[in-house]
């Protein structure tokens, strides 16, 4: 498909007292504005976020409850914000863009309403067209941050270079970073072989190593894999990097952005970390992604929910491909979302969030290594080659005589030098020296030299005193750091008494690489092993009792009740009883533990009107409580009715 051109639909949303105002600042159809209130309660938003934010426990299919929830939520949000004059302006702008063979880029400006930043705007859904806006190539959705600094596309010649920082500090829950790196490398392997995209790995995830690597090599994309969080006390998003002892270090987006800002070729950051897209409800630039944009990064992609490995890999491959093909970053986002959706994953395409400050989405200007030849040049080339060959044939014989004489002299000189310098020539080469082989043809004066590329490899083993055999050769512990190995396949065997022997094959790429291995202890009869629990239970009670229990919209009996064998994670709990207001809360299930939920239901209130003939006393009973009203006094105050 040809690259899509876009017109802009700038929608500013700002708080106006207790309500909000949506204002179209710029569009093909002009300006418009409406006032609105959110159609959701805090409980509605929380329940929806729980439904779409737990992809590892959900089944994906066309009628999945998460998909239906996304349509309902996104549809109500669209119909609230895009109504009246704003809706008419949007429809006219979309029609005008279509007539011009272009798409309509929806640039959301919500910095003046930071309390709305946590809403998943990527699920905006147009019910009349049965279409999610951000899934359509005609209507990409961008969270636009307007800053005074101008953005110009960076002209680069492929490959597009990305630095992948992998952070896995030992005092945080361990991530399967090796598997994630392997899948990411496989996802862009075809692009790497074509010379379109190149990714380098940075293992020691310290700020010092990051600064050093950015100084040594030019990179266009910073790709982070690791933990992230939002510090409510500091009101700022953080990424968990490492210190020199490989312990976790919280680094704010502002702090990291200051370092990345100094690397001028860098135009984009991709944050594959929890809460990377989380924002403050009071400061529009307090989130990690927002801070990086404020520090000068033209485009930042972050995840607003947990994302599965399959979806993350699909996203990375299609996004990198589209950017390398010269697509604007927002158009590349649509391609990546569509690729996730095409795999039958009907909800995770909305997990990535694009923050952008480049007006037209163009942050790269991809150029070829050389210019294309014109048709006249292609026609003239054979004739020019023939003329050059004829000129060379006229002088070939005098040159040949000179060459023969020179070759004989050089041969005698080489034989003499070989005997004279034989001990020196056959010394064992240094480990860091690349191997070279040369051959001299009898009829040519050129030497064909083939170099075998190398990689510098460091191997970290746990336990550290394990025996390491690399390519059938034992390696001393003191030499496991900074080894020079040839690029390509290698085998490694790691063993130690009391541990299972590890043996595997790995494939080296050129550059610096750190390999980490941990041996598993052997099982013994004296120390029984127990599989870690992944289930928990929730005890739910209420006052009054016998309230219906709903866990993630599924009926689970009445209170009091204990719900067992629940997978770990967050659940939406709703208690419902006739005559009482619904009770909403969330419960976090922890491995092998009991989570308590105790609720006091609030009774529904109303008015009772009664008329008595002849006049007398009125008695009202409610749960063994009564009250007596004297009709004479009531009638005097209310005209005989009560």
Secondary-structure topology with pairs:
Elements: E1 5-16, E2 19-26, E3 32-36, H1 42-52, H2 65-81, H3 84-99, E4 102-109, E5 125-126, E6 131-132, E7 141-144, E8 154-156, E9 160-166, H4 177-187, H5 189-193, E10 197-202, H6 207-216, E11 221-225, E12 228-231, E13 236-242, E14 248-252, H7 253-261, E15 268-272, H8 288-294, E16 299-303, H9 309-324, H10 329-342, E17 352-356, E18 364-366, H11 375-420, H12 422-425, E19 436-440, E20 447-451, E21 454-462, E22 467-470, E23 473-475, E24 483-486, E25 488-495, E26 502-508, E27 511-518, E28 535-543, E29 548-551, E30 554-558, E31 561-567, E32 569-576, E33 583-589, E34 594-600, E35 617-622, E36 625-630, H13 631-638
Parallel strand pairs: 1-4, 4-7, 7-17, 8-18, 9-10, 9-11, 11-15, 15-16, 21-27, 28-34
Antiparallel strand pairs: 1-2, 2-3, 5-6, 12-13, 13-14, 16-17, 19-20, 21-24, 22-23, 22-25, 25-26, 28-31, 29-30, 29-32, 32-33, 35-36
Helix pairs in contact: 4-9, 7-8, 9-10
Structural overview:
This protein is of the alpha/beta class. Helix content is 27%, strand content 32%. An eleven-stranded mixed beta sheet has the order 3-2-1-4-7-17-16-15-11-9-10, with helices on both faces. A four-stranded antiparallel beta sheet has the order 23-22-25-26, with no helix packed on it. The longest helix has 46 residues, at 375-420. The radius of gyration is 34 Å and the shape is globular. The model is unreliable at 56-62, 369-389, 391-399, 423-450, 525-531 and 622-642 (pLDDT under 50).
């Amino acid at each position: 498909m040809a690259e899509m051109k876009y017109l802009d639909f700038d929608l500013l949303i700002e708080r106006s007292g207790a309500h909000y105002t949506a204002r179209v600042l710029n569009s093909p159809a002009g300006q418009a504005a409406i006032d609105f209130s959110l159609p959701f309660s805090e409980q509605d938003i929380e329940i929806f976020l729980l439904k779409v934010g737990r992809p590892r426990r959900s089944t994906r299919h066309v009628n999945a409850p998460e998909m239906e929830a996304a349509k309902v939520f996104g549809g109500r949000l669209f119909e609230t914000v895009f109504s009246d004059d704003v809706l008419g302006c949007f429809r006219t702008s979309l029609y005008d863009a279509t007539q011009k063979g272009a798409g309509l880029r929806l640039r959301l400006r919500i910095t003046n309403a930071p309390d709305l930043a946590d809403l998943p705007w990527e699920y905006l859904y147009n019910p009349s067209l049965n279409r999610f806006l951000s899934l359509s190539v005609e209507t990409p959705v961008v969270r636009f941050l307007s800053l005074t600094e101008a953005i110009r596309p960076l002209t680069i010649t492929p490959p597009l270079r990305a630095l992948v920082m992998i952070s896995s500090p030992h005092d945080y829950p361990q991530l399967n970073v090796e598997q994630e790196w392997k899948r990411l490398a496989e996802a862009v392997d075809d692009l790497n072989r074509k010379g379109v995209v190149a990714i380098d790995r940075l293992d020691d995830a310290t700020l010092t190593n990051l600064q050093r690597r950015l100084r040594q090599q030019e990179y266009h994309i910073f790709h982070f894999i690791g933990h992230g969080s939002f510090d409510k006390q500091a009101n700022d998003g953080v990424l968990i990097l490492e210190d020199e002892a490989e312990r976790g270090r919280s680094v704010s987006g502002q702090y990291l952005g200051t370092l990345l800002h100094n690397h001028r070729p860098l135009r984009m950051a991709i944050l594959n970390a929890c809460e990377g897209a989380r924002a403050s409800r009071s400061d529009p630039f307090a989130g990690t992604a927002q801070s990086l944009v404020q520090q000068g990064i033209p485009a930042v992609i972050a995840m607003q929910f947990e994302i599965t490995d399959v979806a993350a890999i699909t996203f990375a491959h299609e996004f990198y491909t589209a950017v390398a093909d010269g697509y604007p970053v927002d158009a590349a986002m649509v391609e990546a979302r569509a690729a996730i959706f095409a795999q039958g994953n009907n909800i995770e395409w909305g997990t990535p969030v694009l923050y952008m400050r480049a007006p037209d989405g163009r942050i790269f200007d991809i150029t070829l290594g050389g210019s294309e030849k014109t048709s006249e040049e292609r026609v003239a080339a054979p004739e020019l080659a023939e003329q050059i060959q004829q000129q060379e044939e006229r002088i070939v014989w005098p040159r040949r005589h000179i060459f023969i004489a020179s070759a004989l002299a050089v041969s005698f000189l080489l034989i003499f030098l070989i005997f004279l310098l034989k001990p020196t020539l056959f010394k064992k080469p240094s480990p860091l020296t690349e191997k070279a082989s040369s051959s001299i043809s009898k009829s040519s004066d050129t030497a064909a030299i083939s170099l075998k590329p190398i990689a510098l490899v460091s191997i970290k083993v746990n336990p550290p005193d394990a025996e390491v055999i690399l390519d059938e050769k034992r390696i001393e512990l003191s030499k496991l750091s900074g080894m020079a190995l040839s690029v390509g396949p290698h085998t490694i065997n790691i063993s130690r008494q009391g541990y299972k022997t590890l043996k595997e094959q790995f494939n080296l790429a050129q550059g610096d690489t750190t390999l980490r291995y941990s041996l598993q202890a052997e099982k013994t009869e004296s120390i029984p092993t127990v599989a870690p629990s992944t289930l928990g239970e929730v005890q739910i009670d209420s006052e009054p009792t016998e309230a219906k229990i709903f866990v993630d919209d599924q009926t689970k009996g009445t209170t009091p009740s204990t719900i067992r064998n629940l997978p770990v994670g967050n659940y939406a709990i709703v208690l419902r009883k006739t005559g009482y207001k619904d009770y909403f809360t969330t419960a976090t299930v922890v491995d092998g533990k009991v989570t308590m939920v105790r609720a006091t239901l609030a009774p529904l209130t109303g008015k009772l009107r009664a008329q008595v003939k002849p006049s007398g006393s009125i008695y009202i009973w409610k749960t063994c409580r009564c009250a007596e009203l004297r009709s004479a006094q009531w009638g005097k105050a209310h005209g005989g009715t009560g």
